[in-house]
Amino acid sequence: MPQKNQTLGEFIIENQSSFKYTSGELSRLINSIRLAAKVVNHEVNKAGLVDIIGTAGDTNIQGEDQQKLDVYANEKFIRTLTKRNIVCGIASEEEDDFIAINSQDKNNQNKYVVLIDPLDGSSNIDVNVSVGTIFSIYRRVTPLGTPVTKEDFLQKGSEQVAAGYIVYGTSTMIVYTTGCGVNGFTLNPAIGTFYLSHPNMQFPLDGKIYSVNEGNYIHFPQGVKNYIKYCQMEEGDRPYTSRYIGSLVSDFHRNMIKGGIYMYPKSSKSSNGKLRLLYECNPMAFIAEQANGKASDGFNRILDIEPTELHQRVPFICGSKNMVEKAEEFIQKADN
Ligand SMILES: O=P(O)(O)OC[C@H]1O[C@](O)(COP(=O)(O)O)[C@@H](O)[C@@H]1O
Ligand SMILES: [Mg+2]
Ligand SMILES: [Mg+2]
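^ Fructose-1,6-bisphosphatase class 1, sequence as received from the core. Prediction below:
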């Protein structure tokens, strides 16, 4: 059992041996993400003071207006990972296509690719509500020393070797898994060190919180509507409480600690929902399952979905296992 209050650096070294592909490379990669997280955290904490709020004037490939902090965080993570020559490829919500890192260099023996959502919850940046960063790590499938290809990124979520998120909230935390459980580390801003504050995080099997943008209710499939009504009924331990921050990372984090379900279903407005499979749903699904939770699109396990596009979207339901299974029951019943 991890020792509470050990530093993230100590934890990474100590747990290196529990990782099946141990070579130190993944440890160095997690350390680089830790560094970039501190740089971005520094800027996030000043949102409102410095010229970091508002739109950057461009749109990303998804047609969304990029916020200045989206662009800033994207640059910092890509720069930190590239400068440390620790990966052979990066894909990001804010980049149209994947970026090959020195991969044409025959000597490039880096075997990991990283997919990131540099700033999650962009609509909350300007209003001082918690936001996050999400990352997903795979071993490349193409030979070392050859240029990375789309194939290296379009892997099923079940192939992830590590995944995590940073939440910039009342405190700043890194929460991640390498397939041996989920641990959370809180930043002590006075000394810039992350300490293990939440060892072996677990989703309660059941909860009393549901998180969904009910503003889209009329556009939801009947099964989703029925489940929301079920959450609101005066019966047994219901009604549940509705909590929706509008930042996936923050809603997920709260639900993992207190028990709850987060849903971004498909709707008549968006046939595949809003969230991106590769750098939002897969990493959160890996963490959820490692914390005894569950993640599906209403029918299929998220981690079994075969990706086809870098920025593809999927309906996403994630959280306490019994709650997700109840939601699936309503969705599948209404679909028949
Ligand atoms: O405003 P909506 O439609 O409810 O969407 C909110 C959801 O969209 C997101 O902001 C999408 O993520 P980005 O901010 O990274 O684009 C999620 O964090 C959040 O859960
Ligand atoms: Mg996001
Ligand atoms: Mg984002």
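The chain has seven helices and 15 strands.
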